[in-house]
Amino acid sequence: MKIALLGIVCLLSACSTAVPLTQSFPEAPTMLMEKCPELKTIVGEKVTIIEFTKTVSENYTTYYQCAGRNEAWIDWYNQQKKIWEDVQ
Amino acid sequence: MQINICMWILHLLPDSLITWIVNLILIAGAVVTAAGFFVRFIPFVNTYRIPVQIAGILLLTTGVYFQGGYTTEMAWRERVAEVEAKLAAAETRSAEVNTEIVTRVVTKTKLVTQRGDDIIRYVDREVVKNQEVIKFVENCPIPEIIINTHNAAALNRPIEEKK
User: pTM here?
Assistant: First the structure.
């Protein structure tokens, strides 16, 4: 009886279909997830033009490092979006 | 629950076995139906004609139904295989893009850091020895207001005005 019932249920399920596929959006590289560091400030009572120049230079370097990562983020997003859309 | 079990069993079965079972049911249904309606010389069939006809029609209906389900299942399997292949290709391409971008960022960051370090070294090596700079350092300390303004800009904070 149970087998007969199972058979009937199997008959009912003839046209049902399970679609197990899901596409997950890719993980971004951890390097791109790093936050930009804060810029350096000048400390000390008697500050010379030398220290001032060095701090400003270091801050410019920090900016360009961060700008590079930001540029890479944009590029990463655009390329991954195109790959994602091509699958759809 | 039972539907899921049935579908799960169906997914486990190889395609050739499903085809074989479905065709067997369909052919058996057709044969039994034909026998029930048209064969009169076999005594058993002739005696139980109505039950044979019912059994034949049931088998044929089941076979046709399974054939429909099987065709749908195969179409979906084909579609799933196609999407799986696309996904695999996309995942590979995605990983390649990640590697390309990370490599580019590492190279660029290294170059930027190198140039920044070069400038700091230049300041320590050459600028500090420059007579004009030495004279400036001795006579002109940077006013506090300039330092505060720079620090406020660096931290993107409002300037604390001292009156």
Answer: 0.67
Cβ atoms A41, B151 nearer than 8 A: yes
CA angle B56/B62/B64 to nearest 5° reads 100
Query: CA torsion angle for B109, B115, B120, B122 (degrees, to 10)?
Result: 170
For B35-57, how does the pLDDT look when each residue is reduced to its tens digit (9 = 90+)?
A: 888 877 777 777 888 888 899 99
Question: Which amino acid, one-letter code, is at B26?
Answer: L
* CA–CA dist A7, A17 (Å, integer): 17
A67 part of a folded domain: yes
* ipTM of model over 0.90: no
Nearest CB to B101; choose among A11, A29, A52? A29
Return the pLDDT at A73: 95
Q: How many angstroms separate the CA atoms of A7 and A55, rounded?
A: 79
B163 occurs within a structural domain: no
Q: Nearest C-alpha of chain B: how many angstroms from A32?
A: 8
In the structure encoding, which two tokens stand for residue B153, read together?
């800009």
Chain centroid offset of residue B14 CA: 25
Residue A85 within any structural domain of the chain: yes
